[in-house]
């Protein structure tokens, strides 16, 4: 009797921005892991004001209201040109989620990063 070993086939699917309807097909995005799922305990990371950003590659606007949504945008939806403000915002959001910084820090950092990337919606002034 001869046994045949069959390895399961794993298909890599493109990542999708949780707030966007179109898939992001970049190589860089395929290397990132999925963001942590939001539990009821994590919901206290809300910004004082929602921030509207427009992603040209997805062709739609998105309203970001908390550190988890901001982290999702920074990791999966952000334009390829990432500057120093993007890195600062990513760091701030991660530290807010871990409880080491305030949501005000993440909100300001995300707004500055969106302004640097030129994706901040018109009329969204820094508050």
Describe it:
The chain is α+β, with helices and mostly antiparallel strands. A hairpin with a 4-residue loop joins strand 1 and strand 2 (60-66). Residues 21-33 and 38-42 have low confidence and may be disordered. Helix 2 (67-77) runs antiparallel to helix 3 (84-98) and helix 3 runs antiparallel to helix 4 (103-116). The protein contains four helices and two strands. A two-stranded antiparallel ribbon has the order 1-2. It starts with 26 loop residues before the first helix and ends in an 11-residue tail after the last helix.
Topology overview:
Elements: H1 27-31, E1 46-55, E2 60-66, H2 67-77, H3 84-98, H4 103-116
Antiparallel strand pairs: 1-2
Helix pairs in contact: 2-3, 3-4
Order of helical and strand elements: HEEHHH
Considering DSSP H and I runs of 4 or more, what fraction of the residues is helical? 25-40%
Radius of gyration: 17 Å
Count of individual helical segments: 4
Mean pLDDT: 77
Distance between the termini: 74 Å
- Please report the total strand number as a whole number: 2
The major pleated sheet works out as: 2 strands, antiparallel
The geometry reads as extended
Question: Which stretches of 5+ consecutive residues score pLDDT under 50?
Answer: 21-33, 38-42
Sheet with most strands: strand arrangement = 1-2
Structural class, please? Answer: alpha+beta
Strand content: 5-15%
């Amino acid at each position: 009797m001869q046994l045949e070993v069959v390895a399961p086939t794993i298909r890599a699917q493109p990542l999708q921005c949780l707030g966007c309807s179109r898939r992001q097909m970049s190589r860089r995005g395929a290397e990132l892991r999925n963001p942590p799922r939001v539990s009821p305990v994590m919901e206290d990371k809300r910004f004082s004001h929602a921030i509207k950003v427009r992603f040209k590659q997805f062709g739609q606007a998105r309203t970001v209201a908390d550190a988890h949504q901001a982290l999702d945008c920074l990791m999966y939806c952000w334009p390829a040109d990432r500057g120093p403000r993007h890195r600062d915002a990513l760091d701030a959001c991660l530290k807010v989620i871990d409880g080491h910084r305030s949501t005000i820090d993440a909100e300001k950092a995300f707004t500055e990063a969106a302004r640097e990337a030129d994706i901040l919606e018109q009329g969204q002034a820094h508050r």
